[in-house]
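Quick start: what a row looks like.
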Amino acid sequence: ALANLGRYAEALDSYQAALTQQPDHADAQHNLEIIKQLLDESSSAEQEGEPPQQSDGSSAKRN
């Protein structure tokens, strides 16, 4: 839900916390990688002076 709202940093923290509790949770691992990619893209766009793209979160699996 946080990723769908564009709150990627909070989503990252949430997935990391989930993986601390359940390190083998495949959906959390997958979604964490997606969030990391989105954060990298946002950071790159900001450095280039472009507004960050909003994601509808459709690529993230729902838990």
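That is the whole record. The chain has a mean pLDDT of 85. DSSP finds two helices and no strands in the chain.
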